[in-house]
Each structure stands twice: as C-alpha cells, then as structure tokens.
Amino acid sequence: MTWVTWRQFRTSAALGVAVALVVALALALGWQQVSSLYTSSGLASCSTSCADATAAFLRSAKAGLPGLAWMLGVGAMYLLPGLLGAFWGAPLVGRELEAGTYRLAWTQSITRRRWLAVKLALVGASSVSLAGLLSLVVTTAAARVDTANANRLTPLVFGARGVVPLGYAALAFAVGVASGLLLRRTVPAIAATLGVMAVVQAVVPLFVRAHLIPPLVRSTALDTEHIQEFFVNQDGEVTIVMDPQLSGAWILHNEAQTAAGAVFTGPADSTVCGPGTTPGGCVEWIGTLDLRSVVTYQPASRFWDLQLLETGLLLVLAGLVLGWCFWKVRRLV
C-alpha cells in the first residue's frame, strides 16, 4: 500500500520540491547580498545609536534582489499551505472516489482505515516537512531584515516565520482530504480547499492571534514630545497617535484618552487650533488637557509563545478534520 501511494504521489512530490528549491535558491542569493549590506552599512559593528545605520541597511535591503527575495519569501509561505492542501490533499482521496479506483483497493486485504492512514501518513508528513524546511530557509534568510525592522510580530510577517507555517500546512492538507471525501470530485475539492484556507489565513491574524495570550495595556500621561501623528479636521475633530516606543511589539490599539477613559476626539479649541494658528500652539493646548496615552499590545518577547500556541491550535483543528475523515471513510458506499 505504501508503494502504491508513493507511485501515485511521486510526480506531485517532485514538482513541489522543484518549486521549493527555486524559491530557496532565490532566497539564498538574496541572503548573500543582505549579509554584505549588513556589513557595509555599519550595522554589524554598531553597538549604540544605530538609527542611521539601521535606516541605511533597510533602504538597501528593500531594494533590488534582497527586497524581491524578502517579498517572495513572505508570499511563498502564505501560498504554500493552500497549494499543498489543494494539489496534494484534495486529490488524495477525491481522485480515487471520482475515478472509482477505491473499489479495487477496498477489495484487497487492507481495511478502509488502513488505506486512508497510509495515504495520510505519507503525503501529510511530506506536506508538513516541505512547509517546515521552506519556513526554516525563509526565517533564516530574513533574520537580519526582521531584526532591523523589529516587526516579526506584525500580522504580515508573523505568519511567514517560525513554526506557524507547519500548522497551516497540516490544516490545509486535512481540509483538502476532507473536501475530496465530501465532494468526491477533484476540481471542486481543490477550489473548496483554496477558499477555506484563504478564509482561515485572514480570520486567524485578525480575530484570533491577538487573544491567544491576553494583551498588555500600558497607560501613561500623554507626552506631547512623542506625538507621532496629529490631525484636526474641518469639524474640529482631533486625532492623536502617539509613538508607542515599544520596539518589536505588535500594537493592537493606540489611543489618547481622557481622565474618564473615553477616547479623546476633541473638539479642538479654534482659538489655538483654527485657521491662522500655528501647530505648536495647538500641541501646547493638547498638553494642558490631562490626557493619557493608552497602548494595547503584544510585546516582542511573546513571539515564540504565540507561535507555539497558534501552531498548536491549527494542529488540533487538523486533527479534528482528519478524525472526521476516518469516520466518513467507513460510511462511504
């Protein structure tokens, strides 16, 4: 049974590995240039007051091949799970049901569950392993840029680093197999898998990830020296965005609040913030209002904690979906 499964899977496996090698090669070339830029910018030898060296390094690293390789790495890690689920998971059982070849397999000496278990073990392990290896390459190649950017926790970067791609690959594979079992047609199963994974990869960062660990809240007196953005519209409504000064943190909410805990939106004092006034006078007026800067955030130190929790959640979901597949395969006629 293992040999038969491998014979069916080897062409898809060879194609997937070939694509992964191309991506890895591009990342390796980009990484070499990034290493040179890291040294030439002075960031490698900098120990204090490194803002200028960091800015110079990031400007160079985001241009040309290094920048292209960075974007390729992020794109590859978001596309890979869905593609593995669609083209390795969905046809695994769906193609057998569509072609009717499952009838021959089930008349042999193996049970339905063993038939499914062998397929899942070989192809599923290959899917997760490929995602893991590519994630290792991407994470390593982008390490210096991520450190300089201090943005590993932001939703875009977080999902393309560490062990989280393994969890998405496992879930995508499970969804693909389940889609094939449910729809019994390969093409609809592929479309369903891609659609489900697109929704999952959008919903988890937006509504789930930030709450895997309760976020921290920091409330301090508003310091006008650290106002990052300040707007007053024609109706006198005020928008204040403070510099959170939390390197590497994922900022969930950044608000200026009144002493009563309400978000401050004005109205602005037209005598100091209206036409003909100077921005400095308006900022001074803000400083007299006894406002507070309230930041809700996930600190940079929680990167691996969030990685492990999200991966664990995805693996549990994958296990539940595969459990349904074993239940379903016994009831197929």
UniProtKB/TrEMBL annotation:
Q: Which GO terms describe its cellular component?
A: plasma membrane
Q: Listed GO molecular functions? A: ABC-type transporter activity
What UniProt keywords apply to this chain's record, in alphabetical order?
Membrane, Transmembrane, Transmembrane helix
Keyword Transmembrane helix assigned to the entry: answer is: yes
Residues annotated as signal peptide = none
Q: Where are the transmembrane segments?
A: 70-94, 115-143, 163-183, 190-208, 306-327
Q: Which domain of life is it from?
A: Bacteria
- What is the recorded name of this protein? Transporter
